[in-house]
Every structure is written in C-alpha cells, then in structure tokens.
Specification:
single chain, 206 residues, 10 helices
Length: 206
C-alpha cells in the first residue's frame, strides 16, 4: 500500500469518527445503523498500523461491549492483539471467531473440516461460507500468527471446551420446548465464557 493510499484511508477514518462523534453529541448514544464503526475497523486492518488499530479496538469494545461483530472483524482483532503482544485479548477474539464460525480457524490451518449438525442463524456460520472466504482472509496474516492459533486450537483444554460447545449447539437445534431452549442458550453463553478462560499454553516474541 502506497503512502497516498494510507493517507486516504486515514482521512476516511477521521471523517467517519467525526460523524460518530456528532451522533453521540446529538443522541447521547451511537445510532450507528450504517455500520461506520465497522468501516473504521476495516480501514485500520487494511493499513496495518497495529498500535493505532489496538487503540481503536479498545475504544470499540468500551463503547459497543455487546456487539456480536462478524468473523473478519474478530480474526483481524486477534491478529492485531497478537502483533501488540496482548495474547489474552488475541485468544478471546479467536474464541469469538469460533463462535461466529466454527470452521474458519481449522481451514486457515489447513485442517480437515466436516459439517456439524448444528443450527446456523446466518450464512456466515456455515462451512460453505468459510470455504469460500478463508483464502481471502488469510492473505494479510503471518505464518507466525497462524502457527500460534494452530498451537492453541490443538491443545486438549481448548478442544474439550470446543466439543462441549458443539454438543450444546446440537441440542439447541432439536430442542422444541421453549424453556429447554432458553436453558440451552444460557448454557451456550456460559460455555463461551468458559472457553475464553482456557489458559494460554503458547507465547510469542515480537
């Protein structure tokens, strides 16, 4: 990316930030129905300035703590945190990525992947979607980062909670009684929290 292209993206970021700031001043909250907060993140991802991207992600998570986001966002968040050596946050983003698409991480690491008998609430949760997108998503990642994810995902602690998460999803798919589904969704959310608390077994040096 040329200096001119980088400068153009930074100017676009400043424009979008200004619009969000005006929204907050006008409404007292962010009425970001146009998804500008995502556009800013993606521009930072493209630029590859990990320090500035990290600062933005900290702002994003503070102001949108319950935002579900989407796979590309969480993958690049994990990469950003990895590059600034915030491995705990990088790992949490990897878990969030898995909860958005259970197949992408394995495909990035050239592992064999099979369909799972689980519910899919959006196209981006499917194996087909992951197969169509993982090569594109992989382009800006480093082998060091992919090795780090691979080491984590191969750990027994990680796999135990992942399998538990999948088993809950399978139960949700066939649960018909409203109270049962409610309890299963609660169990799913608790399992995601448990997954995020798995202790990291790998480190890296910048």
């Amino acid at each position: 990316m040329t200096e001119k292209q980088i400068d153009r993206r930074f100017r676009k970021i400043q424009t979008l930030k200004s619009i969000l700031k005006k929204e907050k001043a006008k409404f007292g909250w962010f009425d970001d129905s146009y998804g500008r907060r995502y556009s800013i993140a993606e521009l930072y991802f493209e630029i590859g300035d990990f320090r500035k991207t990290n600062i933005y992600l900290n702002w994003f998570n503070k102001n949108f703590p319950n935002d579900v986001t989407y796979p590309y966002f969480q993958l690049n968040s994990a990469f950003t945190y990895f590059k600034v050596n915030k491995l705990n946050l990088a790992y949490k983003s990897v878990v969030k990525l898995n909860c958005l698409n259970l197949f992408l991480v394995d495909l990035l690491n050239k592992k064999s992947v099979e369909e799972q008998d689980i519910p899919e609430w959006s196209e981006s949760e499917s194996l087909k979607w992951a197969e169509n997108n993982y090569e594109l998503y992989k382009q800006n990642l480093t082998e060091e980062f992919l090795d780090w994810i691979n080491n984590i995902s191969n750990s027994s602690e990680y796999q135990i909670v992942k399998n538990k998460y999948i088993s809950i999803l399978k139960l949700i798919k066939y649960a018909e009684e409203l109270n049962q589904r409610s309890q299963l969704f609660e169990a799913k959310n608790e399992c995601e929290k448990e997954w995020q608390e798995v202790k990291l077994i790998t480190t890296h040096n910048n």
